[in-house]
Amino acid sequence: MASSSAEIIAFLLGISGWVLVSSTLPTDYWKVSSIDGTVITTATFWANLWKTCVTDSTGVSNCKDFPSMLALDGYIQACRGLMIAAVCLGFFGSVFALVGMKCTKVGGSDQMKSKIACLAGMIFILCGLSALTGCSLYAHRITSEFFDPTYIAQKYELGAALFIGWAGASLCIIGGSIFCFSIAENNKTPRMGYGYNRAASMISSPTKVYDGSPDSKMPKSPPKHFDKNAYV
Q1: The pLDDT of residue 149
Q2: Mean pLDDT, the chain, as a whole number?
Q3: pTM for the whole thing?
Q4: What residues form the membrane-spanning segments (predicted)?
Q5: Do strands 41-47 and 51-56 pair parallel, antiparallel, or not at all (unpaired)?
Q6: By C-alpha distance, which of 165, 167, 174, 172 is closest to 80?
Q7: How large is the greatest C-alpha to C-alpha distance in the chain, in angstroms?
Q8: How does strand 157-158 pair with strand 31-36?
Q9: Which residues contact 47 (CB under 8 A, 6 or more apart)?
Q10: Which residues partner with 43 through β-bridges?
Q11: DSSP secondary structure string, 63-103?
Q12: Can you tell me the mean pLDDT for 159-165?
């Protein structure tokens, strides 16, 4: 029961992390910067993996998609690949987790289901590591440009999408670790068995006494001894 509960918790953590990681791809605010006036914010610059935009004080946004994938910076291409790989790994990890959980009817024997659950845990861990690497690589580029005194272009700060990606990656890694530890717990669980006691299973038979004559083969009952209270 404890193992099944742990698998359910791990599945919920993995699914939640995968949903958060998937939601970072279309999220706008990977990096954000604003130009403040004396009273209101005059313009807000923000960008993600697919486009860069600017929003004025009236709320009107003007966006520009990146023109060519081959002309992009290397870190954006790497982040795209890592995040897409994380989404795909999370999908396959969810499928294997459903098959490997004890509360489902598919997957074969308990030993096979434990191996499938462990495989799902490893996939979830890879999903979390891919998302964590992609978000950290993007954040490192933002912070290095922000603190570089020789960088004269527009400087950005960390956007909300990065924090969502880090949270989702952490949940995937935690859920995958629980799945991997579940196979060790299943191997340590003793199996219920029934011992066979030969001495206790033998049926006692009445004692048979043979007389001393060699041609006599009929057993005789042993002499009965009665206590004196038997005649009362």
Answers
A1: 87
A2: 80
A3: 0.74
A4: 82-104, 116-139, 159-184
A5: antiparallel
A6: 165
A7: 130
A8: antiparallel
A9: 30, 31, 53, 156
A10: 35, 56
A11: EEE-S-STTS-HHHHHHHHHHHHHHHHHHHHHHHHHHHSTT
A12: 93
Q: Show the tokens assigned to 170.
A: 């952490």
| pLDDT single digits (tens) 114-123 | 888 899 999 9
92 vs 221, higher pLDDT: 92
Tokens of 190: 């003793």
Residue 78 has pLDDT above 60, yes or no: yes
**Cβ neighbour number for residue 218 with a 10 Å cutoff:** 7
Token pair 């404890």 is found at: 2
- Residues ≥6 apart with Cβ < 8 Å to 61: 53, 54, 55
> Which pLDDT band, with edges at 50, 70 and 90, does 73 fall under?
confident
What is the tens place of the pLDDT at every residue in 171-207?
999 999 998 887 766 665 554 444 445 544 444 445 4
The whole-angstrom separation of Cα 121 and Cα 115 is 10
DSSP symbol at 149: T
Residues 171, 148: Cα–Cα separation, whole Å? 33
- CA 171 to CA 173: how far, in whole Å? 5
Supply the pLDDT for residue 57. 77
Alpha helices in the chain (DSSP H): 2-24, 74-100, 110-146, 160-188, 198-201
CA distance 18 to 20: 5
Going by C-alpha positions, the residue among 180, 160, 170, 183 that lies closest to residue 127 is 170
